[in-house]
Input
Amino acid sequence: MRSYVPNTIEEQNEMLHAIGMENMEELFEALPENVRLKRPLKMPQGLSELELSAYFDSFDVSAGNLPLFRGAGAYRHHIPAVVGAVLSRSEFYTAYTPYQAEMSQGLLQSIFEYQTMICELTGMDASNASVYDGATACAEAMLMLRGATRKSKVLVSAGLHPEYRATLNTYARFAGFELVELPLNELGLTELSSLEQNINDAAGAIIQSPNFFGCVEDLAPAANLLHENKALLVAVVNPISLGILKRPGDAGADIAVGEGQPLGMPLSAGGPYLGFMAAKQKYMRNLPGRIVGQTVDAEGTRAFVLTLQAREQHIRREKAASNICSNQSLCALSAGVYLAAMGPQGLKEVATLCLQKAHYLRDGLLSLKGMSERYPNTPFFNEFVMESQSDTILLNVRLREKGFVGGLPLHRYFPGNGGILYCATEMNSRNEIDAFLNALEVSL
Amino acid sequence: MRSSAPLLFELSKTGRRAADLPPMDVPELDGLLPEELVAKEPLPLPEMSEVELIRHYTRLSRRNFGVDNGSYPLGSCTMKYNPKINEQLPACFNKLHPLLDELDLLPVWELMHALGELLCELCGMDQFTHQPAAGAHGELTGLMLIKAYHDTRLDHERNEILVPDAAHGTNPASAALAGFKTIEVPSTADGDVDIEALKALVGPRTAGLMLTNPSTLGLFERNILEISNIVHDAGGLLYYDGANMNAIMGIARPGDMGFDVVHLNLHKTLSTPHGGGGPGAGSVGVKKELIPYLPAPVILKRHGGPALPDYNRPLSIGRVKAFYGNFSVLVKAYAYVLSLGGAGLKQASENAVLNANYVQHHLKGEFGLANDRVCMHECVLTPGPLLERGIHTTDIAKALIDRGFHPPTIYFPLIVPEAMMFEPTETETRENLDELIAAMLDIAEVSKTDPEALHRAPETTPIGRPDETRAARNPVVRFVAEPKE
Output
């Protein structure tokens, strides 16, 4: 049994005596007798490091090594070794929120650099230090819409990730928002006429691009329509796609949010990931959570501090813009190192590899019997929906037997929907895609 | 020596890069995206070589202080040592996509379920969800559960959450977001909840009470059972803010005190690293009657079968984030609990409380004490006589930095003017504590002989005290290149 308590029993006793106590029991005298636990916790005996490692080795995690053609909000990308090297610095990972700026300049500067790169990536003026994930970034953006417009009706594209939509529903129910869904048209894109019909009294709209079904939305017409009606556009974007796609800020979005996991974070069964949030200057003070700003010390040395704290819960309490306290600093650090390692050229190359491989996969799938594309006339980035005459669940079972993880059956989120959402990234080599297509052909 | 470090953007050189990629191995097609959707300009990201990138971040790391650098007695944050084996273990799950078929994620469900069972035993609760990503997120989730509970019983009038004046700022903020009105409950001079005031405040509008126990004053709420009866009798529920759970593991359980909902900060109590502000995890536990409202999916074992996610939860509040939670953080917390076992957890709490009392005992002569009682895992001091010499809490904090320590939490709780909240945790040695005490006593001494020196602190850091007013008044929140002359 270990407890990481360094002091020996003798030292503990000496310390007890030093404060005038005989035993540990005396420390807890304030606890009424009837709230005390009078038995040991029912837990297995503590494990040594060796036993612990052996136990974890016993988990069968082999599915993680299979060729993967699934994305849907979490993407397998190459993570440059520099990311892990920087993250392993315990000056970063064993620190807490940089409350004491003088001894936290490293973290503060890394967050300032992250904020700058998120602004550059999204075409925005200000970014916060991050929130929990893409879904909560969406929910926080919804709160921003109310903060900026004092209205509580929010239009949500049906192309938004269903788990983000579910998260929005939860926040909306309790925080008092009215959500109106904007359906997709036959091209798989947000129906603008519906936006127009519902725009009255709306704080803004939340539109994802590429959307959940992979379709790349043209955000500019939606932004124009919203601005004419004094409403805001929240764009939910895949950061890797911005290596080639127009930035949401350039397309007229007021707020850009998204899931930062593709920027150097492993899949890790769903987390921890990174919610990034950026906004145009006008909405900087509506951003929730930590924000790092630049200033100077008394001698004029450049310094970084947590700033604009008047928005936050520890000052404003029940009147705060959000209840969020921490950020995902270490994940933001991953994203910062990733973006700096890739640079503009590297990010463009990753995006191009994703785009081309996804299209190669699509073309291969189309050549198979009974396969068709649901939105054949709509541009896509790294994901697209296919329809098959075979049962989608059964198809994936057969593929899995052959050692492949196929696309995501849309049935998971939309009961009765027979589509499959396929994904390819730079991780899928041509050989792997060809082998997958062969396996699929005999499974159909 | 004061110095700034260059920014990535100042180091950037056109054409440099730190990452390479395999060549395109599929036919490259043109015109896949229409012109109007494609970026016209290259992204203005920095361009760095690998060696310069690593040196940059290594330089930044040396301008930062973590638990591995030294004592970090930041109250209410439980900055205990982060065991190294726990950092290695999540790697085996790194390649698992969250939307793999359920049967390919069996180890994930098994681990989440097993951790939930252990936390139920630790806290005296009936079911845990690991979906909330942090403490404040757990609070929000827990309050939504309370709202859903009352709503299902058509008890729509219950829209008030009682929060003691000593509470964390997230408590009222979370309550507001969950749709509640916050009612503040005063504390007595002794640091307990004012029972008479509480009795006057509860009623048919009471949805619940949020409480940290031990409180943010580092004191155990002695009247907890009476408080719990008062709230329950009024029809409300009790919410336990688990930020201070490190004081009572294996000694007392929130469930046995009458709490209906708890959140645990796994990054505090269960030793997962704070990551410079996150990621953490804010697992939420509930008593039986609240299980139906938990966020879906709930990980369940049925009829002796394997643990699996259950999505069929008609009364669930829904999702509070995508996927299942901060899984890697859960792995580390689980490894910690397995390493310590029940006896180790109790030993950790006992020593956390011993260390805090040791510090309090040796400092209360020279400094002020918010409440002269046996404290739990943290103690709240004030500058006491140092104030008369013009020395404030900030000065003491900054002088501690020069003496090699991370300062305590300062100016919190709000009800104690000039508060300094020390939480040494159980993983500090007696020598560390003696040095911390010596540093504080030295500061007290210097305040008599050379108070100006304390106003100049910190002098050993790369920067002096930053101008925070300027940062807020004229916000510069991103780098903008100077226009070239």
User: Anything to note?
Assistant: The mean pLDDT of chain B is 96. Residues 327-363 of chain B form the longest helix (37 residues).
